[in-house]
Amino acid sequence: DTGVSQNPRHKITKRGQNVTFRCDPISEHNRLYWYRQTLGQGPEFLTYFQNEAQLEKSRLLSDRFSAERPKGSFSTLEIQRTEQGDSAMYLCASSSLFEQYFGPGTRLTVT
Amino acid sequence: QKEVEQNSGPLSVPEGAIASLNCTYSDRGSQSFFWYRQYSGKSPELIMSIYSNGDKEDGRFTAQLNKASQYVSLLIRDSQPSDSATYLCAGPNSGGSNYKLTFGKGTLLTVNP
User: Contact A100/B98, CB-based, under 8 Å?
Assistant: First the structure.
């Protein structure tokens, strides 16, 4: 059994560049979530998919952020025109019902 | 704004002692709560979930939920140095499908050998 996987694990980019992260959920889980975590804070909800449908987006998710989950399998999170304030750990989680299991995260550093 | 708040910490206990971690929440409709453990530089790991009033025990861990007081706690018995981590309390928003989690800021626990 493999857990949630995320790639890349680390990403360093220059301000203004676009980045894309990938999340592969636990195979039998139909719910997938993206969170963002900064130092000293708990994870903050960004968006949620049930199967391929994106059912909610946080106000934290500005128009520079977009997420997809084609065919209800893996998901991608894209950030366009990155800003230094986007530097954070981006966490993906999946669940079948209420218990969410996190992947290892992608640490983004915007220079 | 639905909130989850954790006692400020950090918390330091000697090896073998009981560590008590606490959390309060504002959403009276919340039906379930989760405790995650997060080691430095790692992602959160689910260690306990609780869905009803009372206590739930799993090995050295006991979660307690008191809906009337809007209070949830985690007790770690016989604390070990390997328990040193940040512990995050999380609850889903009530209504709808109870899917997204609101997290507290976490409590840093250090267990001293």
Answer: no
